[in-house]
Predict the 3D structure of the following.
Amino acid sequence: MADRSEKVTLMILEKRLATAGIAYAAFRRVASAPRAVVSPAQAGTVDSIQYLRAIAAWLVVFHHLSASLSSQLGWKNGFAIGAIGVDIFFVISGYIMAMIAARTAQFSPLEFMLRRLARIAPLYWLMTFAFCLVCLLYPSVVNNPGMSWSRLLFSLFFLPDFVTGTTLPTLILGWTLNYEFFFYGIVALSIWLSGDRTLLVAALILCACVTLGILIDGSKIFEFYTQPIILEFVLGILIWNYGASIYSKSWFKPLWLFAVPLAFAALAWSGVYSDQIRYMIWGIPSALFVLGAVPLLSMRLPWLARLGDWSFSTYLLHIYVIQFFVKVIAAGAMDNYALMAVGAVLALGVILLISALQFSCFERPATRAFNRWLGTLWPKDGRVS
């Protein structure tokens, strides 16, 4: 009986040691995995990010409406500041990529790039082919109907045209997406090489790119990828990593509520702008806006969240609706300002309606289908898409 009791005791001890060994090995894997700390304040930012997307998209819409009317009617562009929506988008993108890197349990660079493709490519490809069709059938409706097969092909891969050296894609507004995918590539590469989930290594690479652009006179494409505007992604990364320690201060909210509107009003009134220092003139105010808006826009605003859902569709299609309005309606009502105002409101309504339909009927289903396919390759294990 004693021998039997000793055997049982030994078996129990062995099992406990084995369990402890497995637990310790698991702990070592988790402890050694490079992962940024996610604060409670950072965890509830999804709604505010959607609000910011909506605001950024509609700033760009009103900018292009004002610019198109100005060009057609000889007016002064009264809303040039609206182009700052692009800068807000870039800061948001830096913030979101840092959030994804921090929250993803196991980071696969290939999966990351494919999920970015799933989010952006389906609608962008649809809009690109639709634009090509319009150029072929109704070239007078668009401002730049010129196309080439190389430009179209590179556009579909979010690259400049390496054959002709053109940096603008077939869908003109896609220049921002070329920057976005360049940034995604740097994010994937930096994590793959260094394991850094804070994206501070990616930020250093972006800073190095801009430095090279200052020191070296390169081709048009080289200049495109070394423009200081890519530093706005860095600002978003810094907000994710250090923003919570700033906006938790008691003085931050009243200062932000006073200073940010004042800064935007000053920029709008002065009209000051330069491509070379855009990241300073518009990028830094955009970063300050995002820094405060993320924690402060915490209320539930379903209508604004919906506009955020539609923002990518809005961004891609609005310029063509506006061009149609200006060429077909505004040109025939140059002296009838009431009719022109009604037409402008109708154009905005059409943008809103098509954005909602594109998102519901194509963008969201296509993205979900793409992600379901990716799910068969990378089963969900805490990854964030």
